[in-house]
Amino acid sequence: MIQVSYNFFDNPALLEIVKTHLTPLLPLLPSWLDSVCVESFMSGDDQQAMDITLSIPYRRASIRVYPDFFDASPSMLHEMVLHEVAHTWTGPVTEWVRSRLLERFSGDHKETLRDEFEERVEAMTQSLAVTLAQFDISTIEGSAEA
Ligand SMILES: [Zn+2]
Question: pTM for the complete prediction?
């Protein structure tokens, strides 16, 4: 069972919104993950709603939720959380490419390759999220425990 913790949520209503959207998706998380840490990041400087950092050797994901998240519609919230869940699937390969493959290049060529790679990773991840958003995850049967 994946351990989920929530940190720095000063507003219980905002914490509830995050839990409402993440909890039903927990059975979709891959087996390489042992724990997910969700943090409220209320700095407000970023123009993003969520992001995720994976620590594959420690089998951990850290999801940061920014103020823009709470301005989105319920369907957008669902899709944004699915996007971060999708990163847990694409992450092991993309992390390997970032740390091992791209390091073999240098200079402008490396920067161009990195930019193109990141663009494709986001497109692939979003495509997976949009595809998954078509399904009612709560009705999918299985033996996984969240
Ligand atoms: Zn992304």
Answer: 0.89
